[in-house]
UniProtKB/TrEMBL annotation:
<keyword id="KW-0175">Coiled coil</keyword>
<dbReference type="Pfam" id="PF04340">
    <property type="entry name" value="DUF484"/>
</dbReference>
<protein>
    <recommendedName>
        <fullName>Phytochrome sensor protein</fullName>
    </recommendedName>
</protein>
<dbReference type="InterPro" id="IPR007435">
    <property type="entry name" value="DUF484"/>
</dbReference>
<dbReference type="InterPro" id="IPR029016">
    <property type="entry name" value="GAF-like_dom_sf"/>
</dbReference>
<feature type="coiled-coil region">
    <location>
        <begin position="45"/>
        <end position="72"/>
    </location>
</feature>
């Protein structure tokens, strides 16, 4: 008998109870005798107390998750509202110059982006203030154009030479987002710059893609 008991391991007991969920229905008195260590203090507590503790832990975790989801939903709601603002403004623009002005105004005032620049590799069919030509004679510009993909914004930290070329300023930026413009080929970019780490490489780009598509459709006729 003693050898049989010695052959029983904790895993065996756990497996048996897992496969026989009605065990304590048959022997309910055993529950009164069970005690478990408190997860933090190590003191012995009853099974009921341990269950209450676990439920509280689960509640706290759920509250954190719910708060996180609310923050995400709230932030996405603000972004969606801002995107609608840009869409409505672009649709209301009477001329291409008005559309270019809208891009700068909404990016700076609604999205509160510190540095904004519209650049094109190709010469537009009309001269517009704020639409700057980005020749590919510079090595960095060639690299930028070959790196970008249609409909795929790129965010992160770029070299100082790129920053100066895109924004025509020597002011230091901690992060930049380059939104390619064009349907089947990239004819330009909407560049956004920030003095803080705002445009991280792992930043969700869905809304940026949507904005790129809207600006592309509104200014496509220029190219």
């Amino acid at each position: 008998m003693s050898s049989l008991i010695n052959d029983i391991h904790a895993e065996d007991v756990a497996n048996y109870l897992n496969q026989n969920r009605q065990f304590f229905h048959v022997f309910p008195n055993l529950l009164d005798e069970l005690s478990l260590p408190h997860p933090k203090t190590g003191q012995e507590i009853s099974l009921l107390e341990r269950q209450v503790y676990q439920l509280r832990e689960q509640r706290d975790r759920l509250q954190v998750e719910i708060a996180t989801l609310k923050d995400i939903a709230g932030e996405n709601g603000k972004l969606l509202h801002n995107v609608y603002t840009l869409s409505n403004a672009l649709l209301s623009a009477q001329t291409e110059q008005d559309a270019v002005d809208v891009v700068y105004e909404v990016m700076q005032e609604t999205f509160q982006v510190e540095f904004v620049s519209l650049m094109s590799w190709e010469l537009p069919n009309q001269s517009l203030k704020g639409m700057n030509q980005l020749g590919i004679s510079q090595q960095w510009a060639e690299t930028l154009k070959s790196t970008l993909r249609v409909g795929r914004p790129a965010c992160g930290l770029v070299e100082n030479e790129w920053q100066k070329g895109l924004f025509a300023t020597s002011e230091k930026m901690e992060s930049v987002c380059v939104i390619p413009l064009g349907n089947h080929r990239i004819w330009g970019v909407l560049a956004l710059g920030s003095p803080v780490d705002r445009f991280k490489p792992d930043l969700g780009t869905y809304f940026l893609e949507v904005m790129g598509e809207m600006v592309t459709q509104r200014l496509q006729r220029l190219f």
